[in-house]
Amino acid sequence: MTTDVRVIQLIMELRRQGITDADILSAIETTPREMFVPEVFRDRAYDNTALPIDAGQSVSQPYVVAFMTMALQLKPSHRVLEVGTGSGYQAAILAKLAKRVYTIERHAGLAAQAQERLKKLHLFNVEVRVSDGARGWPGQAPFDRIIVTAAAENPPPELVNQLNVKGLMVIPIDRGVQGQVLVRVRRTAQGIESTDLLPVKFVPLLEGVAKSDGAVG
Predict the structure, then answer these.
(1) Residue 60 among the catalytic residues
(2) Any idea which fold 49-200 has?
(3) Contact 117/92 with Cβ under 8 angstroms?
(4) Residues 6 or more apart in contact with residue 68 via CB below 8 angstroms
(5) 142: cis peptide before it, omega within 30°?
(6) What pTM did the predictor assign?
(7) Cβ neighbours of residue 158 under 8 Å, at least 6 residues apart?
(8) Edge-to-edge strand order for the sheet containing 192-200?
(9) Could you report the per-residue pLDDT of 123-139, keeping only the tens digit for each?
C-alpha cells in the first residue's frame, strides 16, 4: 500500500467531491494508477484528471471512476461486466469490490496491456476479452452489474438483456447537442428504469473489433 502524499491528496479531494464509500476509496488508494498511464504522464498519475493512453483512448478521471463505481452499488458477491477495458484501471478497482469481473476491449493491444497489469497486481478474478462490447459476453451472462466506459445513443439491447432482473447498468448516453450524461439503468420484470446521474464526456461506443490498421471488422 502506497503512502505517497499525492495519493492522500487525491483521496481527500474525492471525499470533498462526495465519494463517501470507504471500500471504493480504499480500492483507489491501494491501486497504483501510475501503472495504467504512459510513462510520460506518470508524474500526473494522481491528478484528478483523465489522461491519454494508446489507441486514442484515455484512462478516466479518478472522480468519474469512483462515481461510476459508487453508482453500481456493488456487493462482494456480484459478477460484473465492463465494456471498454482501456488501460485496465477501472477493472482493477472493480476487482477489489466484486466477486468476478469480465471486461471487453475492442483494441487487442490495449487488452493485452491491461491483462498484464492486472496479472502483476495479482487480480486474478478479472477475465479480459477482445470483442465487440455492445454485444456483451453472452457466455457469461447474466450479470449483476454492467459498466460501460464509452458513450452510446441508447443502452444497447444486448447488454440490457444480459442483466439480471433487478440488475444495474451504468452507461454514458450521448444526447447530441445536450451532451453526454451518465445514466443508471435498472432492469425490472416489466422493462428498464433509467436515472440521469452526471454530465460526462467519453469516447463513443463503436461496433466491431479494431484492426491494427485502425479499421473495424
Answers:
(1) yes
(2) Rossmann fold (3.40.50)
(3) yes
(4) 60, 90, 147, 149, 170, 182
(5) yes
(6) 0.93
(7) 134, 135, 136, 138
(8) 126-130, 100-105, 79-83, 143-148, 163-174, 180-187, 192-200
(9) 999 999 999 999 999 99
Mean confidence (pLDDT) of the chain: 94
CB atoms within 10 A of CB 29: 16
- Answer yes or no: are the C-beta atoms of 131 and 85 closer than 8 Å: no
CA atoms of 128 and 158, how far apart (whole Å): 19
- Distance between CA atoms of residues 110 and 81, nearest Å: 17
C-alpha grid cell, residue 152: 452510446
C-alpha cell at 82: 465492463
Q: Which tens digits make up the pLDDT trace of 150-159?
A: 999 999 999 9
Selected catalytic residue, list 26, 58, 60, 77: 60
Q: How many CA atoms lie within 13 A of 98 on its CB side?
A: 28
Give pLDDT tens digits for 58-75: 999 999 999 999 999 999
Tell me the pLDDT band of 215, cut-offs 50, 70 and 90.
Answer: very low
Please say whether the beta carbons of 97 and 76 come within 8 A: yes
72, amino acid identity: L
Cell of 148: 460501460
**Strands in 42-189 per DSSP E:** 51-52, 58-59, 79-83, 100-105, 126-130, 143-148, 163-174, 180-187
Distance of CA 92 to the CA centre of its chain: 9
